[in-house]
DNA sequence: GCTTTACCTAAACATAGGTTGAGGTTTTAG
DNA sequence: CTAAAACCTCAACCTATGTTTAGGTAAAGC
């Protein structure tokens, strides 16, 4: 009810929101086209925001800091009942969800690091056998889950794989 | 000497390189415009590559997997004496260098994770005080060194920072 | 010798996440 | 009331990392 016909609550102009949220006005326009935030118009066609847009922007920025793309953020926000601005509880759920993705990214990078460790000693960089960039290697499908976590022996396999190919 | 006037070594066409390195032909053209690899031309103006281009591409791909940008890769490759194709030793040095950058990224993400941990319990997301996206927060200058590593107490500060601002 | 395959260049397109500029309107301060 | 500041839309531009397309040439197979 409060969302559809806002009435006497104080409204923020785009410039005020930009200042308080520390983003450019153009960014707010951009977010609006992406469906991340919404605004109402005054009689002169200028944007007016409810104050909770600030919290919404905060969540967006937090998500970005965690390496979540805007489209994913939009999806997650869209799954809130009535697409409401996240409450404290909502934020807890969302951030836990994003945290899992962050954990995956960290784990991915740590596996790459481990592989490189092996490859430094080896030095082969063989297109055919080096786990460092073999097409069907541990990190093949970077985005779908922790699949590549399951074969730590590949990092060790790098130890002696020098070949004459290149 | 071997680099400037290549003579009777076997040369690879762009298609052969693409196949063996598992990249698209267009990617090789693109890398060439970026100065990452080089080629010579035959009498019919077609590209011909020395075999060591494969190792160079391997290093490029390895760097990318570590999250290093092409321009940084180019810089690093350019610092090799005579811009030679990396030897095993060169690769060891470069990968250690890049590994340090990878370590920074991992550490950065782990600090973000820790902060979110604090923010989940807190839920404030205050534009003014929350370490999660405060402009001058721990992670302010993401790209220049491990500056933000030095204040672990900010993550704990997040515990009770709810305010009424938004 | 003819046809198919490979190759050439240049420019446009793609995606993410915005920023900048032009030209015009509204709001606000004095 | 007037001028400046803020706002509006739409389109072009930006970086990074390539891919696609169009129009034309070279090389290789039969």
CATH topology of the largest domain in chain A: Multidrug-efflux Transporter Regulator, Chain: A, Domain 2
Proportion of residues in helical segments of chain A: 40-55%
Write down the secondary-structure element order of chain A.
EHHEEHHHH
The most extensive interface, with participating residues per chain, is: A-B, 46 and 47 residues
Write the layout of secondary structure elements.
Two copies of one chain form a homodimer.
Chain A: E1 12-13, H1 14-21, H2 25-33, E2 40-41, E3 47-49, H3 53-65, H4 70-78, H5 88-122, H6 153-157
Antiparallel strand pairs in A: 1-3, 2-3
Chain A binds a DNA duplex (30 and 30 nucleotides) through helix 2.
Task: Describe the 3D structure.
Two copies of one chain form a homodimer. Chain A is mainly alpha-helical and 166 residues long. Chain A contains six helices and three strands, in the order βααββαααα. A three-stranded antiparallel beta sheet of chain A has the order 1-3-2. In chain A, strand 2 (40-41) and strand 3 (47-49) form a beta hairpin. The longest helix of chain A has 35 residues, at 88-122. Chain A is elongated, with a radius of gyration of 23 Å. The termini of chain A are far apart. Residues 1-6 and 135-166 of chain A have low confidence and may be disordered. At the A-B interface, helix 3 and helix 5 of A face helix 3 and helix 5 of B. The first copy, chain A, binds a DNA duplex (30 and 30 nucleotides) through helix 2.
